[in-house]
What we know:
The chain is an alpha+beta fold.
Amino acid sequence: MRSRPRLLLPDVSVRTRLTAWYGLVFFVSGASLVAINHALTERGLRTHLADTAFSQVVHQHWRSTEVDGVVRSESRGVSVEPVDDRLASEIAEATQRAREAALADLLDQSLVALAVAGVLAVAIGWLMAGRALRPLSKVTAHARRVAERSLHERVALTGPRDEIRELADTFDDMLERLDRAFDGQRRFVANASHELRTPLAVNRALIEYAVSDADADERMSDLGGQLLEVNARQERLIEGLLMLARSDRTVEDPRPVDLGEVLSRVAGRVEGTAELAGVRFTVSPAAAPVLGDPVLLEQLVTNLVHNGIRHNHSGGWLDVRTATVGADVELVAGNSGPVVRAEDLPRLFEPFRRGQPERTDSHRGAGIGLSIVRSVARAHRGTVDASPRRGGGLTVRLRLPAAGEGRGRG
C-alpha cells in the first residue's frame, strides 16, 4: 500500500513542522479575531458616530438665543428648508469619514499587533517544540551510540510516563532482548568452537602418526595428507569463529596501538606466503596511532593481508599502507585478482560468503576473514568498506578514530 505524500513541509525536521503548525494556527486564529473585532467595531461605530456627528452639525448650523424672554432659533443666514437637507447630508458624510478613519486606524494597529504577536508565537513555538522533543532526541542519540558500540547501554529515560517515556521503555526492552540473544549466540559459538578444538587436535595427531608409520604405503600417505589438509582447514575455521565471537564486542580496556607498526610485523610474517603465491607484496607503514585491543587489531591487519594474498593470482600484487587523515587513521589494502561485481560487495563481509564462485575454494580460507575485520572495526568505533578495482581485485579501506579522539562514528 502506497503512502500518501506529505504536502506540507515534507523534507524538514519534526521540530520545524510543529513550529510551522503552531504559527499557522496562531495566524489563522489571530486573523479571525481581527476580522470579528473589525466587524463588531464597525457596527458599534455606525450608531455611536451618527449621534455624535448629528450633534456637532446641529451645533455648527444652529444656535439658540433668548430675546425678550423668548427662545428663538435663528439660522446663520440660511433658510430652514434647504438647511434640513444639507444637514442630513453633512451628518452622513461626517459619520462615514469618522467611521472609516476609526476602522482604518483599528485595522492598522490590529495587523501590526498580529505580526508582532505572530513572530513571538513562532519563536515560543520553536522553543516549546524543542523542549517537547528533547527526550526523543535523547532516544535517537542513544540508538545511534548503541548501533556504533554495543547493546549494553540503556536509555533509562526519566520524567512523566507519557508517549515518549513509553517509547524509551519499549526501546530499552528491545535492547535487553537483543543483548541477551547476541550474548547467547556469542557464548554458543565460543563454547562450541572451544569444544571442537580438542577432537580436531586429536584427529590431527592420529593422522600424523598414521602417515609417519613406516608400514604406510603411498596411497595411505596421500590419503593422510588430504585428511590433514581438511583437518587444518577445520582448525582455521574454529579459530576464526573464536576470534569472531571475541571481536563482536566493545573494547573495554583500550591501549595505544600503532597500526603502522602492526602492519610492519604482519608483513614480516606473511612475506614468505606472498612469495610462494607469486604475489608482489609492498607496504607503506606510516604512523597511525589508535586506542584499542592490540591482539584484535593485529588479527584485523593479518586478515586483510591474507585476504589480499589468497584471493589473488600468480603474478599479481598487494599493496597495504597506513596514514593519518584528520582525526582518523586509515589503512588501505589494494590487490589484484578476479573481477568482483559491485552487487557482491556487501556479501563479502558476511560469514561464510566469499562472493564469486572462484573465491570459494576451500584452500582459500573459511570465508570469515572480512567478517572478523568488520567486527573488529565496529568494536573500535570504526568503519570498513570495499570497492572493486577496474580489471579485477579489491580496495579495502579501514578507518578508525585516532588516539585521543573519543568520537563516535556515523
